[in-house]
Amino acid sequence: MPRLPRLFSRRPTPSGGGRQDARRETVQHLQEFVRTRVGVEAYVEPPAPDTGSTLLLIATTGEWTRRRVPDERTAFDVARTLEVPVYNVNFTGYPQRMRDWNSRQRRS
After folding, report:
1. Which of 27, 33, 61, 70 is 20 to 30 A from residue 40's alpha carbon, by CA?
2. Which residues pair with 67 in a beta bridge?
């Protein structure tokens, strides 16, 4: 998936540095989550005042991970590059399996 890191760099950064490291870590995290879980689906969350757009990956178990992305278009591109189904959470809502997983984690 060599194209994936480029999705996060719409604007060139002068020195790269920390921002490129953070992008690389984000890409690696998302790839690892998809590689090590079954039935992962992506949900694009619209920008919020404090976080901006995010990409939420949810496995069939309900386990999930969320990462910030530059914008909603990038989130859809990332999900397609990861080759997982992608949905807009404004239209689909959050899957019940995610809520069930959260409940189980709180009880643990």
Report:
1. 70
2. 55
What pLDDT, in 10s, does the model give residues 38-96? 999 999 999 988 989 999 999 999 999 999 999 999 999 999 999 999 999 999 999 99
How many C-alpha atoms does 5 have within 13 Å on its Cβ side?
A: 11
Confidence (pTM): 0.82
Q: Which of 65, 66, 81 is nearest to 6 (CA)?
A: 81
Reading the block at residue 34, the tokens are: 């998809």
Q: What DSSP letter does each residue of 19-48 carry, written as one string?
A: HHHHHHHHHHHHHHHHHHSSS-EEEEEEEE
CA 42 to CA 59: how far, in whole Å?
A: 9
Half-sphere exposure of 83 (CA within 13 A, CB side): 6
Question: What are the angstrom distances between the C-alpha of 53 and each of 67, 85, 106?
Answer: 9, 18, 26
Q: In what order do the strands lie in the sheet with 64-68?
A: 64-68, 52-58, 41-48, 86-88
